[in-house]
Hints:
Elements: H1 2-12, E1 19-21, H2 29-43, H3 47-53, E2 54-61, E3 67-69, H4 70-78, E4 84-96, E5 100-111, E6 121-132, E7 135-143, E8 147-148
Parallel strand pairs: 1-4, 2-7
Antiparallel strand pairs: 2-3, 4-5, 5-6, 6-7, 6-8
Helix pairs in contact: 2-3
Amino acid sequence: MLRKTILLGALLGAAPALAQLAPGVRMPPDIGAAYGRLGKAMMARDAAGVRTVWAEDFVVNSPNNTVIGREDVIDVMERDFLDYRDYHKHITFVGEKPEVTIVMGYDTMIPVRGPGAGKQVMRPFTDIWAKRSAGWQLIARQATIAAAE
């Protein structure tokens, strides 16, 4: 149970609640829109909406060093293991290629339950987006809890 709570926290970082871009960083409009759709779908626990943004072969390396796929994450999301206060996404790098875009930064949030409950957590992340026939889809994510204050 604890493992899955950590994992879902890692994935919520893919949703842009109050995203802030570092000076000089430009978010491609299609990927910014996809982050927006993902955020709405995750907050509503809308599995169908999440599936439109996460590629079928999506994988995440979560803060507890477990690599899992899209359907495992959606299962955790649907069971309501998500509760944060004061969530912010800080984007520090966007690297664009014709078929792949890499977004890096860090999330800050206060988990209401689970690891770091009641403390501000900082979690660096790397998201990898690929241009597919359905548009830009998130294919991989790495997130690590760096600090809890």
